[in-house]
Amino acid sequence: MHNFLPFAHFKGQLIPFADAQISIATHALHYGTGAFGGLRGIPNPANPNQILLFRLDRHCKRLSNSARFLQYDLPAAEIQAAIVEFIKKNRPDQSFYIRPFVYTSDLGIAPRLHDIEKDFFIYGLELGDYLSAEGVSCRISSWHRQEDVSFPLRGKISGGYITSSLAKTEAVSSGFKEAIMLNSQNKVCEATGMNIFVVRDGQLVTPGVEQDILEGITRDSVMQVARNLGINVIERSIDKSELLIAEEVFLCGTAAKVTPVNQIENYKLPSDRPITHQLREAITAITEDRDPSYQDWVFKVDLTD
After folding, report:
1. Rounded distance between C-alpha atoms, residue 69 and residue 85, angstroms
2. Whole-structure pTM over 0.90, yes or no?
């Protein structure tokens, strides 16, 4: 049962969440011609009248870029202003997740992006841990990640998440918590909504952008933090067999944060995960505005304004 925030940004207005509804004939509903973002917010532990947002500027820029694939000019500054207004109206007092969404809002049956109306909405819900902080078990999915040659993987396009949905349900149905997808070259790509990191010989390894991954904002943050901590970071292709002999494996994303992987298929991974733990603690401290070195990553919304 989800606890949705009481107000949504819909058709340029802030209205009760229950009143923000679309027609069953909405174009995006039929063709997956939408794009979304997702970011977390928390009340400031040091100031209950302030909300902290992690890397808001990067999230808004990525959604603006995703909208361009839909031929929709939606400036990042406009998205950011709407999110700030949305938060001030809702005044959340728990950890929460924001879902901004751009879509073809016209009513029609022709698959196209030209000569069609587009729109933008925002809603939110209370959200704690998306995956267990103690770690998850994963299986290698039979479903492969799409290729950029046939799908715009640099955007968070809603239609593409059918693959993630198939992979997630396949994993859960077979007794696992999460799925790891390979790309068309049978190299490790990502999980259903998270990027993946592997520790080998004390070095942090992750698939590069040429491996058909989503360019995750948490992924980018983890790499920057790791390098600043003196951990060597390598972006390259990863074979499936490397996962099974890795010292550590973890997933990361806005919802998942930094989540260790305990098991892949029938292979148990080491329970000692010093690098995963170090990075999880560091990212948590940054999001809670406890690390002055990364204050520019934390956007503060003052609810008293």
Report:
1. 26
2. yes
